[in-house]
Amino acid sequence: MIVLKLGGSVITEKDRPETLDGDALERAADAIAATRESGTEDLVIVHGGGSFGHHNASEHGVTTTEGTHDASAALDIHGAMTTLNQFVLRRLLERDVEAVPVHPFSAAARDSKGELDLPTGQVETMLAEGFVPVLHGDVIAHAGAGATVVSGDELVAELARALSADRVGLCSTVPGVLDDGDAVIDRIADFETVADVLGTSEATDVTGGMAGKVRTLLGLEAAASIFGLESLASFLEGENPGTTID
Ligand SMILES: Nc1ncnc2c1ncn2[C@@H]1O[C@H](COP(=O)(O)OP(=O)(O)OP(=O)(O)O)[C@@H](O)[C@H]1O
Ligand SMILES: C=C(C)CCOP(=O)(O)O
């Protein structure tokens, strides 16, 4: 079983609020549809926010740790993410991928230490019935903090653990994690050796950019790959393009 994240930076124009990158989303949907035709592996998709969600969260001062008790602020962030989710679902459905939504705001929560609790029974039943569940970064209730952001990367990690994923892929706007000479780093096994080159996102991003991504993926049992859109098809066909985090 594969857990795949479509980075918000790939499927949107991240520096222009609420702007889809329609071409990139179509290319991603084409690659997914092509492997669904031939493949039998279960697939769970998570997408990030890009220019949907991060701008709204930033305007309301909401991050993964700073919450809000203002329901309209939470709905503003959630609404941007469900709008993007509709675009993603539609492009997949147009290609006969049986994609169905799972909205984390209604399914997950954090405890007072910020630990994510994401029940996955519904995702497992969807998979067993042949659907492709599509989750997304969102706001979720957070004990003692109101509602905070949950990143697509956190959801990927939690799903990979709970569903014992065989493969985890993060399709981003870069061909992998880059070193200080902009070459793709093949393999990352610990945070400290790459900490100096890991930055945040160049665009508005409340969830930590590449540094947050690597940190989240390092704790996983399954190896994870970070790669660019040009390598999505090869990842889905079983290769390990870009950077492997294990
Ligand atoms: N060493 C690095 N190698 C590659 N990218 C890096 C590095 N340091 C910082 N970055 C930044 O991280 C970005 C990718 O992180 P980002 O969180 O934007 O990705 P995403 O998951 O695709 O998007 P989103 O968080 O919106 O879902 C790159 O576009 C780049 O600007
Ligand atoms: C900002 C929100 C609501 C979602 C963030 O998800 P990410 O783009 O995966 O970090």
From TrEMBL:
- What this protein is called in its record is Isopentenyl phosphate kinase
Q: Which GO terms describe its cellular component?
A: cytosol
Q: Quote the record's binding site residues for ATP.
A: 5-9, 209, 213
The answer on whether this UniProt entry bears the keyword Nucleotide-binding reads: yes
Catalytically driven reaction(s): isopentenyl phosphate + ATP = isopentenyl diphosphate + ADP
- Keyword vocabulary terms for this entry: ATP-binding, Isoprene biosynthesis, Kinase, Nucleotide-binding, Transferase
**UniProt keyword ATP-binding present:** yes
Give a GO biological-process term. terpenoid biosynthetic process
